[in-house]
Design brief:
The protein is of the alpha/beta class and 222 residues long. 45% of the residues lie in helices and 18% in strands.
Length: 222
């Protein structure tokens, strides 16, 4: 058995334990984050029927995924990195989900490309939960009006919220905050939890976990 398949099955057992112990109804999807990993590492997961995969960069995704998507029609590809306006058309062509909508400019560009390509993408709004200046995201103060603008004015398919808690913080408070906001906005999905904090994210109601290192091991540096 390939190590990535073994690791994923161990993670699934751990998730089941958390759901059972906490008596949770949610059952989060696992996005296998494949940044820097080759198809040699990814194919064993595809062969077992794993569906959700994430990439951080358009250039890497373009090289890796188009042919694979034609071979595995159920595959769902998630753009989880920062998305620049000039790469939006490529992202809409290739991806099924975008997790990093972080500005009005980007929202308008996604709408234009969706109309041009006649394709709807599932979108998460990236929320700046701690108002860190170096991180992208919509501030909590502007979130309600931004979400309404995206849904009502642009007809974007906003499915949920995404966050990246500050490094070296207890992420639980930020996950709880995002959960509360998603309920206020009547959104069904939460993209939160990575290899280091996914257990807390599950307890706080995450529906999509973004796991790379736990599945594939340490990344190769570019």
């Amino acid at each position: 058995m390939h190590s990535s398949v073994k690791n994923l099955s161990l993670i699934k057992i751990k998730i089941k334990e958390i759901l059972h112990n906490k008596q949770l109804k949610t059952s989060p999807q696992i996005i296998a984050v494949t940044k820097t990993f080759s198809l040699e590492n990814i194919t064993p997961l595809l062969e077992t029927g794993h569906v959700h995969f994430g990439e951080n960069k358009i250039q890497e995704a373009e090289k890796k995924w188009p042919q694979v998507k034609s071979l595995y029609p159920n595959l769902q590809l998630h753009m989880i990195g920062k998305l620049q306006s000039n790469k939006v058309k490529k992202a809409v062509m290739l991806f099924d989900y975008i997790h990093s909508l972080d500005s009005e400019k980007l929202a308008i560009k996604i709408k234009e490309c969706e109309d041009e390509l006649k394709k709807k993408i599932k979108i998460f709004i990236q929320v700046s939960v701690a108002n860190e200046s170096q991180k992208s995201g919509i501030s909590l103060d502007n979130l309600n009006s931004f979400c309404n603008y995206c849904v009502k004015e642009l007809s974007l398919n906003i499915v949920g919220l995404m966050c990246l808690p500050p490094m070296d913080s207890n992420p639980k408070q930020y996950f709880q905050l995002l959960k509360k906001k998603s309920e206020e906005l009547n959104l069904n999905h939460l993209s939160m939890g990575m290899s280091s904090d996914y257990a807390q994210a599950i307890i706080c109601g995450s529906t999509f976990l973004r796991l790379g290192t736990l599945i594939f091991g340490n990344r190769k540096t570019n």
